[in-house]
Specification:
Blueprint (H helix, E strand, L loop, with lengths): L2 H22 L7 H6 L1 H4 L1 H10 L7 E2 L8 H5 L1 H13 L22 E8 L5 H6 L1 H8 L4 E9 L3 E6 L6 E9 L6 E5 L2 E4 L5 E4 L5 E5 L5 E9 L5 H13 L16 H22 L1 H21 L7
Antiparallel strand pairs: 1-8, 2-3, 3-10, 4-9, 5-8, 5-10, 6-7, 6-9
Helix pairs in contact: 1-4, 10-11
Length: 311
């Protein structure tokens, strides 16, 4: 074995260790088959670094009192609610009509809708126009990098998933909710039911799922809050990612607003994926055989290309 191969093998071992750490973190986890191609697998080394440097406890539901800068949101919840209601009644809280919302594309067919206030950048012009008081509150809290109003329709249900980036924690504030236990979220198996004027802070990289089994819509204020990190080097790296990478997933509320580069690419890639989606519907065995063969070939090439062991 040559030095290049040993280096690749060491890096691959570190990668596998980080994936196992992410996979077994918490009480609930994805199936092995799904974990192989989940985004949490590919981002595991980054997220593992952020976890071990984090200043928040390693648990799914966090204490919002540890983030006192968020208190103005809870104190002004009726102001935020009134602007959310006007948006909802005006039909502004909606699903994307195109493949330009990479982060939440799979949610739309489950009855989930949104209106962005900001997404890892400046507030959207439509948000400044339509909900200026909420935008002003959000802008007064520098640790909030992403914010929106989100709606889940009656009988809507989104299955278990992890969010891809551990550089933030997630804040929810109930605005217009059924105030019923049938409208709830499970975070690593812990259940929380939304209530008007009550807030929740949690680590969205634990497996979580939610549902609204009532006959009323649920609207909340939703924000990504920067994860407190003790190590100054890792903290600086996380902030660089927030400023320069996560913002590539920005999208629009209305025509004319800026769409991030990642979403432009996603729109093209999704069209390429459509034949594969049709294959999956027609023959799941053939689809998964092709999928895992491609993964195996990529892994083989990554480990052995240029090592002299392919000959």
């Amino acid at each position: 074995m040559n030095a290049a191969f040993l280096m690749k093998l060491s890096l691959f071992g570190a990668f596998v260790a980080s994936v196992l750490y992410v996979h077994f973190r918490g009480r609930e986890r994805l199936s092995f088959q799904r974990q192989l191609t989940d985004h949490s697998t590919f981002l595991a080394p980054l997220n593992a670094l952020l976890y071990v440097s984090s200043n928040v406890p390693a648990r799914p539901i966090l204490d919002v009192k540890d983030f006192p800068e968020l208190a103005p949101l809870r104190e002004n919840w009726t102001t935020i609610r009134d602007e959310a209601r006007r948006l909802y009644e005006g039909g502004h809280v909606r699903a994307s009509e195109r493949y330009d919302d990479l982060g939440f594309n799979s949610f739309f067919r489950k009855g989930w809708k949104r209106f962005y206030l900001k997404w890892y950048g400046a507030p959207l012009p439509s948000a400044r126009d339509l909900c200026p008081k909420t935008v002003e509150l959000v802008e007064s809290i520098p640790s909030i990098h992403g914010a929106m109003f989100t709606l889940i329709e009656p009988k809507g249900k989104v299955g278990g998933h992890r969010d891809p980036f551990a550089g933030s924690v997630r804040y929810h504030l109930g605005l217009i909710t059924p105030n019923h236990d049938d409208c709830c979220i499970w975070i690593d198996g812990e259940r929380y039911s939304w209530r008007d004027g009550e807030d929740l802070l949690f680590d969205e990289t634990y497996l979580h799922r939610f549902q609204n089994m009532t006959d009323q819509p649920r609207i909340i204020f939703f924000a990504d809050v920067e994860r407190p990190i003790g190590n100054p080097v890792v903290r600086g790296f996380n902030r660089w990612l927030i400023r320069h990478v996560v913002g590539l997933t920005a999208t629009k509320n209305v025509e004319g607003e800026k769409i991030g580069f990642a979403n432009k690419v996603f729109g093209v890639v999704y069209q390429i994926r459509l034949p594969l989606k049709r294959l999956k519907q027609a023959n799941r065995t053939a689809y998964y055989a092709l999928k895992y063969s491609a993964l195996a070939a990529a892994l083989y090439a990554l480990l052995f290309a240029g090592s002299g062991l392919l000959r």
